[in-house]
Specification:
233 residues; mainly alpha; 9 helices; globular
């Protein structure tokens, strides 16, 4: 008798296509960073436009993975998302309350401080420097935390394990495309994303649910907003 708790396997070709195709596409998008003039010539703000594109790409990733799961007869509960719509809404609302609170704090500090122009010009181009940019960054972070945990932990690890791949090896395999998903520009970035990818993978194996992963991922993303405070004298 077939074990009703054992999920059906996802075709290996689809798993490989996602684990290769997603980071390759993300890398191509990141190449836009090398051509900022493309945005300015069109009269667009580089940061805002870039992160809107990234946000849309994350939504597409979630849509594709959801479709693959459905076609393979999998339920969201089988990749660690046993949330009711109500619980998911609560998580998103909690994220927005925290993110907006952080935004208000940053805006108050900046409005009541002297700005170091030299530090402002040298700060990372991906740090949101305006209020509008920070609002867009918050929305991007919401979708990014969900997408990356669904794709590279829930989907990738479970799909690989269903193909009889050792679960610890599955974590490593799933972490590699997660690393290149971010369009690396330095060796420091490589080790940063590799370390977090492994930590998130181990956490998922231990807890077997994605809620804590998503929350931690959201906090890490939002912490990037605080970088703007280094321009305060």
């Amino acid at each position: 008798m077939q074990n009703s708790e054992t999920p059906k396997t996802i075709p290996l070709s689809q798993t490989v296509a996602i684990l290769i195709g997603f980071p390759v596409t993300a890398t191509l998008i990141s190449l836009l960073l090398l051509n900022q003039s493309l945005f300015t010539k069109l009269g667009l703000d580089f940061f805002n436009t870039f992160w809107v594109i990234i946000t849309v790409w994350y939504i597409i990733q979630i849509t594709i993975v959801s479709k693959v799961l459905t076609l393979s007869g999998w339920k969201l509960s089988e990749i660690g998302l046993p949330f009711s719509k109500k619980k998911m809404i609560y998580m998103i609302i909690s994220y927005m309350f925290f993110a907006i609170g952080l935004l208000i704090f940053i805006e108050i500090v900046l409005a009541n401080s002297t700005i170091d122009a030299k530090k402002l010009s040298s700060i990372s181009s991906l740090t949101p420097k305006t209020t509008t940019a920070r609002v867009i960054f918050i929305m991007m972070g919401l979708v990014a935390g969900l997408a990356e945990e669904i794709v590279y932990r829930g989907f990738a690890i479970k799909a690989l394990v269903s193909k009889k791949i050792n679960k610890w090896l599955a974590v490593i395999i799933a972490t590699i495309p997660f690393v290149f998903q971010h369009g690396l520009k330095s060796i420091d970035q490589f080790w940063w994303f590799l370390s977090w990818g492994i930590v998130f993978g181990i956490l998922f194996l231990q807890i077997k649910k994605l809620a804590l992963n998503i929350i931690i991922h959201w906090l890490i993303i939002l912490s990037a907003m605080v970088a703007i405070l280094q321009i305060v004298k």
